[in-house]
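Entry 14: structure prediction run for Transcription antitermination protein NusB. Input pasted below.
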Amino acid sequence: MATRTQAREAVIGLLYGYEIGNDDIKKSAITILEEKKIRNKQQEFALCLFNGITQCLPQIDELIKSHLKEWDFSRLGRIEKSILRLGVYELIYTQTDTPIIINEAIELAKIYGEENAPKLINGVLDSIKSYKKEQ
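Run finished. Output tokens:
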């Protein structure tokens, strides 16, 4: 049985595909998740995240842009964008504990991102976490 971490990894892959212009990825998301052996509750979790992120993408991207320090959104790698989008969505739209969200995002960045990605992702999500508390 897949874990939530594996579900998040799959969501990063789906978001990456979506980012590079594969609009059909929404239609084939279930098939992709099945191939990765993400089923049942974890599949529901992954689909909920992916669909939520794609529906809220403009708001999520604006929030990321407003919390990037000394970095331009357009210069972010696609994987880093995908991880940030997932983290921001979970912070803002889910009840998952903040430390879990940030830790998972950092771990995904260590595996899939560029060398400085974990630090960048930690900084942006930590800033958004503080922003969320103020709201």
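Notes: The chain has a mean pLDDT of 93. Will compare against the previous run tomorrow.
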